[in-house]
Recover the amino acids of this structure.
């Protein structure tokens, strides 16, 4: 299915997202992914500490 010519964009029309905006989005995605990795690491370390404390407490009682 083709677009009718009256709805087609003019030649040389600007794209909706410029390359500068694209690089800004990419850097924002990298930053948020890095934050997610650190958050996941912190949660994992915290969970391991809780498990170790529970095991230690059970071992001490038994």
């Amino acid at each position: 299915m083709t677009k009718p010519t009256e709805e087609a964009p003019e030649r040389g029309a600007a794209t909706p997202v410029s390359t500068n905006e694209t690089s800004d989005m990419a850097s924002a995605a990298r930053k948020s992914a890095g934050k997610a990795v650190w958050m996941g690491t912190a949660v994992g370390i915290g969970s391991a500490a809780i498990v170790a404390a529970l095991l230690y407490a059970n071992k001490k009682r038994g």
Notes: The chain has a mean pLDDT of 77. The radius of gyration is 26 Å.
